[in-house]
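I would like you to help me understand the sequence and structure tokens below and explain how sequence relates to structure.
___
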Amino acid sequence: MKRTAGVIFRTIILLLVGVMIGQVLNKDFAARNLGFSFVSNSKIAKVLQLVDRNYVDSVNIDSIEGVSVNNLLQNLDPHSLYLPQQQAQSINERLDGGFNGIGIEYQLLRDTLIITQVYAGGPAEKAGLLVGSKVINVDDKKFSGSKLTATRINSVFRGEKDAEIKLSVVPPLSKDLKILTVKRGHVDLSSVDAAYMADAKTGYIKISKFSATTDLDFRKALTALKVDGMNKLLLDLRGNGGGYLNAATSLADEFLTDGKLIVYTKGIHEPRTDYFATDSGMFQKGKLTVLIDEYSASASEILAGALQDLDRATIVGRRSFGKGLVQQQFAFDDGSAVNLTVARYYTPSGRSIQKSYKNGVDSYRNELAQRMQKGELFSEQSNLNDSVFKGSPSFHTSSGRKVFSGGGIMPDVFVPADTSKFTPLIQDLSQQQLFTAYVVDRQQQLLKKYPTEAEFLTQYAVSNDEVDKFILYASQTIKEMDSHEVQISREPIKTILKAQAARFKWGDNAYFKVINTDDVTFKKGLEQ
């Protein structure tokens, strides 16, 4: 499985349910005591004490306590939940924009760690570690072939800043062992997955999350695109499951003029708080199109909803997730935490886009699958016929256009899902990380033929013969493949193979340049 030293990986299908789908954390709420320590007459505390002292078998009280707290919270709403220490740490690092490590992504193949990305400016790059290198030994101890796990790998590459790690590696397309010393340091995690000129005048920026560094990452990318002649922006929020509320409002501020209401929040214990734009935005006048889909949630919906209500952008794609709840994180002394819903948010027109969770957590999480079954991913009218919109109050944009509440942001321009790209076979190939594995195992010599990204993108095309070789390669892992699925998946497989090869050598921008050439929503966005 391809991972970073912070356990980050990309798949084609984003199954973002539970914690990260629709997360909005508000760092601006005043800090307060958790108030979760159970008093002596608490039934929960007494039951846990009884179990600890009297139960027939040995039990992990900490684990039971966590499950009990989580069940309590999940009965409130689907986004209030208990986070074990590792999960809380992973989420916070992702949203705080970095961690202490060496700055790599990797793939495990045949119990060997192979470097698939080296972060620019990070400790690994400074030490001379190359993409395609195999890590054989760590600190003079056997690493390759030692039953590697993600937990063990993280314990090696992440940890105390400035600590040195001695790596014995085999560089790409080599058989010779090379010794490198890497010093751990802070690794930045950018919110911007890609930023490039989509055509002569249109810049494209894809944002994967709303973290503490999102606005800074965006401004840096926008500045570079303006130098390249950009006067129109295509902002891609597809698959963006949320993050910090103030990161969403800061990004909205880049597009709106002084005094415009971006969003407001309120709850029974939280008075109404309004968030307004300032006059500091870098892109207040240029044409703006925003891409969303069913996995665009909460902070993404705050931004899309504000830009739609204020007639500042054209929203293109499919109905967003539908999450209008704001969480605050409360930490326990052991590093675990509670994400507790403390407010609802409302778009400038007064819309709450939170979908119903009255039928319980399981039904809530299955709602996206239900959309597909009802045909909503393929028909705009099917969305409008959904019960979440029937009988809902009318809301209007600044110019008087009708917009919808109660179930996500409905796009201004609907684009149906392309099922040919998401066959069960492609899902399996992606989840097994076989596209990247094939690049590592079979295509590194091919990549040597193309000195530049531009030459590769314009001159290389995946042939039918190459697809056949890939299917044969994948059949060693996926033993049974439906011949019909193979046939209808051939063209998407070509695109993904080329995209993964481009990413392996030139990074994320090259990956999205390839992926977007065959993307209907991207093309529709360019037309606006």
Notes: Confidence is low (pLDDT under 50) at residues 1-20, 29-38.
